[in-house]
Amino acid sequence: AQSVSQHNHHVILSEAASLELGCNYSYGGTVNLFWYVQYPGQHLQLLLKYFSGDPLVKGIKGFEAEFIKSKFSFNLRKPSVQWSDTAEYFCAVNPPGNMLTFGGGTRLMVKP
Amino acid sequence: DTGVSQDPRHKITKRGQNVTFRCDPISEHNRLYWYRQTLGQGPEFLTYFQNEAQLEKSRLLSDRFSAERPKGSFSTLEIQRTEQGDSAMYLCASSSAGQIAYEQYFGPGTRLTVT
Asked: Which of A53, A84, B94, B98 could form a disulfide with B25 if both were Cys (CB 3.0 to 4.6 A apart)?
């Protein structure tokens, strides 16, 4: 069965620092890839997605992610984080089939 | 479009009781999903409907769990004879057809506590 690994469980950064959150998946076929974000007290929201084409995808709020097929990775990046980016971030994979397989999440705290 | 809604938001029940949760998807979304999320973990897939047909079920969905979507609109998830291990956040998501079917929109969840 496919699985998704997020290596950083907790990340603490100061404002304006750069962010990179790792995501690796185990599935050899074609996949759709997602990052979801959950702000404190709110529901899961789609941050960005990759279906095909340019492996560098841009999402909302200045986030981007790069799909590297050879590494089975889909890392999330942001050049300069803000206090409002404090949230939990989930990587998810959708192989053929309809459900999403999520990673365990990374809790990001941005210090003002 | 008011998004995916779930009711109740919180449920506390005693072990052995039955509980039922409701999910109202985004209108005209024909796909509906149930996930379960425990503390410190990502959501785990439970089951999926396309219109009123239940097309996929996870092995996580024991025989105490049943889900329905009788008219292809709202869905209910029932847990019979609840156990403490059922304590979790139960999430509902919906999506439409085509490629964007893979974009799932989540509701706020129902937090179940079994005492």
From this structure: B94
A105–B107 C-beta distance less than 8 A: no
Residue B40's pLDDT is: 86
Q: Which tens digit of pLDDT belongs to each residue from A10-34? A: 999 999 999 999 999 998 788 899 9
Three-state secondary structure string covering chain A: CCEEECCCCEEEEECCCCEEECCEEECCCCCEEEEEEECCCCCCEEEEEECCCCCEEECHHHCEEEEEHHHCEEEEEECCCCHHHCEEEEEEEECCCCCCEECCCEEEEEEC
Quote the minimal CA–CA distance from B53 to chain A in Å.
14
The secondary structure of residue B41, as a DSSP letter, is: S
Please report, as a single letter, which amino acid is at residue B107.
G
Judge whether residue B1 has pLDDT over 60.
Answer: no
Q: Closest-CA residue in chain A for B104?
A: A46
DSSP code for B72: S
Task: Indicate the residue of A6, A43, A99 with minimum beta-carbon distance to B33.
Answer: A99
Residue contact B42–A32, C-beta within 8 A: no
Least Cα separation, residue A104 to chain B (angstroms): 4
Q: What are B's interface residues with A at a Cβ cutoff of 8 A?
A: 4, 31, 33, 35, 40-45, 48, 50, 55-56, 58, 91, 93, 99, 101-109
